[in-house]
User: Fold this.
Amino acid sequence: MTTVVFADLVGSTGIYESLGDADASRFITQLTNALSKIFTAQQGRVVKLLGDGVLVVFQHEADAFAACTAIQQQLQKNPIYPNGDAYTSAPVEIQMGLDAGDVVEIDGDCFGDAVNSAARLAELAGGAQILTTLSVYEALPSTQRRQVLSMGPLYLRGKSEAMEVFRVQWRDGIDHEVTIMGAAKANPTRTARLRLHFKPAAGHATQAGTPPQSIVLSTPQASAQLGRSLQPTAGMSHVQHIQILDNRVSRLHCSIAWRGTHWFVNDESSYGTWVYIDGQPQAMALRRSECMLIGSGHISLGCEHDADAAPLVRFELN
Assistant:
């Protein structure tokens, strides 16, 4: 058994846009090299660098777990800013996925189901989050198991069956209060009815031409697209749309579709999507990744919900 870790930098596109190609490439290379050194010190072997991330393998699940938590804790204690200025940029965040299984190495690369699952978990994780699987959880010592929270069965991209996903609670006093992506709170046997409603912010110039809009998704074949454009994606003329005229919103910002037993929102934007579940203190930040919708809450497009006149889409499941 080999434990596979994918660790990816969140928001690398924005770093390139703000720093320029040369400086961004230099910064990201320095960052991935620093990550590689930490993984190596924790008994990991870096298989390859991925541009804005690293692929690492370990012989033991506990070592992989320790390495990932050490990196997140170090970034929390000593934040790294792309331009070196905490006042004009956000600190870098790393999203991580871990799985264990049989791995084949060929010509400096790794192949196998565990590799695919670790990559999908890294995509699904939000900034500063670590997601893993049952096989890793069962191999951990009791001290590390106490830091892991089951999120219930989730469908990973490319997987036909749901798998139980676990979230590592590496921050004392914070993570234990947070339930992200709908940790098995709902297990519907029918297609849940999803209502989406957008109301433009009063007096906000860029949203002035946007009317209030509501749509309802109630069958497995239904889906929705949220963004500045009402032009349907090729071959998807049946999809319902909510158009939001705001310069923070991408032409096709995010899509919503039914998969397996839940509705999922998938970010396809330049600036990200934030999902706020009612009653939960922390949002799920999506950057070219997806999460499950449960209960009710808001989807904020292109900025966090407390930004000036944030474009918020209300969602309700029943």
